[in-house]
């Protein structure tokens, strides 16, 4: 039987977002047909929330999977799904925001997305061709004007909610200083080894919901490893409860009040990752996890290069992740 995933209410809109979403960015990238089949399996298992981005090149197969799920009667209406996509950094100008979302909607074959996020608080030139990026292709984001473009997406009904990703407390402060509609979500890396305490404390009173990507440490990808799934403390807790390390990590995140974007294209593991709602961690288990030494996984420098702008953002991100 399919699992029913609980939802969380988002500010500034009438939407409820399922607390577990399926990530669509895998490594190495899978053929579109494989991704489409995985999404259909995920819908059968109970997933109703999918996370994509212009930059992932997974919008098209996701759109095809949604159309197929409707045809198969797995869902009655598109409204049963919660779809997130993201503005890529090469579209980091006010007048490019609505057109970028329109490209995403055309890829997805949808009239609206539930959540539209600024992917990174940086702008890249349209000419960027390689990673790490050369200095002349990297710019600060004009927060005020790009956010006006995001607000237009919401006002036009192309996105039900708008938010950000990879934003630090400092970047959020800058955004909030001029935003007419505050961001509903900040999607950032968060897991038992990167707990984002300072950022969460900043976001909570402002009604900005934190969503956790890389919740399992992105094992077997080029940006991750087994630091979480192979962590002694997590393995020990998992063994004593008859659960897997992945379930312990996901349950810990759920108990912190954040939503989770986890990726598995394997039908058994995707089901396992939903099976976290009818049991809990003891206070002692939770405390043990909250005391693990911190280690950020996804780093910017290897992707964006050692430029001042990148190093400054990286320093802000590392500071936000501290426990106090
Ligand atoms: N906003 C951003 O900048 C940003 C950055 C990174 C990621 N994201 C989003 O977040 C999603 C998830 O993050 P992520 O892909 O970095 O990492 P993740 O979800 O932490 O880990 C994915 C890896 O874990 C494996 N896995 C999944 N469930 C498992 C289980 N129960 N037991 C053992 N292994 C398991 C997957 O392999 P199998 O598929 O073989 O199960 C895959 O190799 C992405 O797909 C993307 O949508 C957003």
From TrEMBL:
Gene Ontology molecular function, alphabetical: oxidoreductase activity, acting on the CH-OH group of donors, NAD or NADP as acceptor
Name of the featured protein: Aldo/keto reductase
Keyword Acetylation: no
Example GO biological process: secondary metabolite biosynthetic process
Organism placement in taxonomy: Eukaryota, Viridiplantae, Streptophyta, Embryophyta, Tracheophyta
PROSITE patterns assigned: ALDOKETO_REDUCTASE_1, ALDOKETO_REDUCTASE_2, ALDOKETO_REDUCTASE_3
Catalytic residues identified in the record: 56 (proton donor)
UniProt source species: Corchorus olitorius
PANTHER family attached to this UniProt entry: ALDO/KETO REDUCTASE
